[in-house]
């Protein structure tokens, strides 16, 4: 569909990455074939309650709300670290991150995504007075009904991909919280190392107790 290198200046990849797995990594590697930079928007970065519509900033680390749940195990900062570790330094410099607040209104959420992307693009521009129009696109695949958001940005050309490796973070996360580490056919070595280290924390042990009660058959 898109021929040649660097058709885009920025490709936007939206996800929760709980945890980051091989399919996510493959999408980002594919994005680098088409774009100079990749913007990764981390969903479920903080709860909506207690935050105004204008409180979001693309450079906010969002560490003030670290309440962990069985669905949201890792903070935005931790997920950024996990993702960066899976790429070479020269690629890491072209990865740009922002957190997205969980909101349940498409119009509000779409505006937030556009705001995050706009701020990152502006930060990466050499000059605010530059008249060069950066070309922004969206990358992803229609996994299920939750992927409908890909159609909410008609102004951004879509690089649509297959579901690499047919992986989903949900079963990986659920098994991990029950004490079963994923394999290298599911996650990058850097993610596996991150998960092993996190297993040694009190946060993991607390979540594991919850998982044993609610997820175990």
TrEMBL record:
InterPro entries: Cyt_trans-like (IPR004821), Rossmann-like_a/b/a_fold (IPR014729). One of its GO terms (molecular function) is nucleotidyltransferase activity. The keyword Membrane does not apply. Residues 12-174 form the Cytidyltransferase-like domain. Keywords: Nucleotidyltransferase, Transferase. NCBIfam families: cyt_tran_rel (TIGR00125). This is Nicotinamide-nucleotide adenylyltransferase.
């Amino acid at each position: 569909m898109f021929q040649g290198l660097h058709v885009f200046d920025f490709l936007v990849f939206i996800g929760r990455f709980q945890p980051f797995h091989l399919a996510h990594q493959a999408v980002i590697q594919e994005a680098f074939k088409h774009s100079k930079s990749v913007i990764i928007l981390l969903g479920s970065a903080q709860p909506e309650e207690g935050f105004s519509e204008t409180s979001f900033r693309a450079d906010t680390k969002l560490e003030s709300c670290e309440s962990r749940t069985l669905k949201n195990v890792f903070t935005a900062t931790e997920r950024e670290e996990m993702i960066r570790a899976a790429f070479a330094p020269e690629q890491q410099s072209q990865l740009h991150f922002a957190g997205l607040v969980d909101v349940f209104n498409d119009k509000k959420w779409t505006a937030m995504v556009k705001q995050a992307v706009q701020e990152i693009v502006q930060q990466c521009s050499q000059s605010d007075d530059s008249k060069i129009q950066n070309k922004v696109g969206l990358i992803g695949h229609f996994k299920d009904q939750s992927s409908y958001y890909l159609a909410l940005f008609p102004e951004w050309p879509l690089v649509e991909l297959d579901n690499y490796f047919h992986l989903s973070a949900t079963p990986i996360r659920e098994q991990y919280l029950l004490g079963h580490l994923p394999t290298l056919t599911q996650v990058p070595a850097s993610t596996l190392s991150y998960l092993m280290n996190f297993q040694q924390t009190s946060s993991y042990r607390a979540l594991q107790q919850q998982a044993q009660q609610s997820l175990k058959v």
